Amino acid sequence: MRYWKKLAHRDQESRITEALKANIDYQHTISLGIPASKLDPQVFYEHAAFLKEAPLLRAYVQNPNHIGCHTMGESETFFKGTQALEREVIELLSVDVLKAEVGHCDGYIAAGGTEANIEAVWIYRNYFMEEYSASLSEIALLSSADTHYSVYKASNLLQLKSYSVPVIDDSRMLNELELDATIKIAIENGAKYFIVIANMGTTMFGSVDDPNLYVTYLNQNNVAFKIHIDGAFGGFIYPISFPDNPVNFQNPDISSVTLDAHKMLQAPYGTGVFLVRKGMMKYVCTPEARYVNGMDITLSGSRSGTNAIAVWMILFTYGPYGWFEKINKLLYRTSWLCKQLDKMQITYYRNPEMNIVTIRAKHVPAAVAQKYMMVPDTHVGEPNWYKIVLMDHVEIEHLEAALAEFTA
Ligand SMILES: Cc1ncc(COP(=O)(O)O)c(C=O)c1O
Asked: Which atom of ligand 1 is nearest to the CA of 113?
């Protein structure tokens, strides 16, 4: 690990205090033009004693705005202290978790996985339009049938036709024959350029696509493409549980990755992470954003700098070994559950490196699924699957209680 380590609370506290000091101090500086201030002191009392010990809450009160992207070009100077912490998070995740070369990636803390996925599609759509003079109808969006629906939002917003590749029912792997056929259909429909969203942990199954399958079939069909990885769920577990995986920046065909700190990392909502190889963010620059210092190249405008600090704190509280241990506890519980299901001859899907178990609906009476708040694959009609996600709060005792009510 180059950057990721464990930091004691007092070291975190002093780093965050220094960062906040380097941001604008509305109280002691005359700042006439910024349409912002700290949180309303009538409502959020800033002298509460407990704030002294709580750097994150102090950051909330100061309310830094991280508008823009801080890994390239210029940024608003008012919040330069805490922007540096965000930069650290982006570099740490790119290099230590996703194996990029040092200084090779840009990125920012987005509202969530949805925004990060849309940002990726927006970048590649504009890239093909600018670099290849592609028309909208020549750009296709390609992903598996298990892909998160944010891809369809991107397709709708960015006016790109999307193509869904069927997966094999038991293994949830891309069906290779269908992948080739889908690419050929898109080409027949006029597509010359492909934007791929490959999964590192699908929402319903935790299944992981092999990005090299997309590479093989797109190359065989002689079309240009860009690959984005949606690791919104799996990004903070799969690269740790399976470090030799092919889904990272060492793979030259992978251009960008979504991670969601507000899922596995248990960060506050509003902590999606978008990571992309340098040189790509410029394709979504909005030159009309003249009042913002630096380029506006993110989908959201104003965004909370405190969210970036929260991610920074979680990463440095655990350090890589602490995080590895936490992940392994969850994987242990997942394996325990699978063992019980095997004994009971209950059929399910599980990626061995992930903490999701998706059980065939025939084993789970609807009332039982509801009682234990299992999530179905569909709320429209009869579900085929129910999932159990082994998050931090899901304990073996809870699983035991549910198992007693499943039917073989
Ligand atoms: C794989 C995947 N991608 C994207 C998203 C969207 O994330 P968010 O809800 O943070 O926008 C989710 C959410 O469940 C997801 O599981």
From this structure: 7
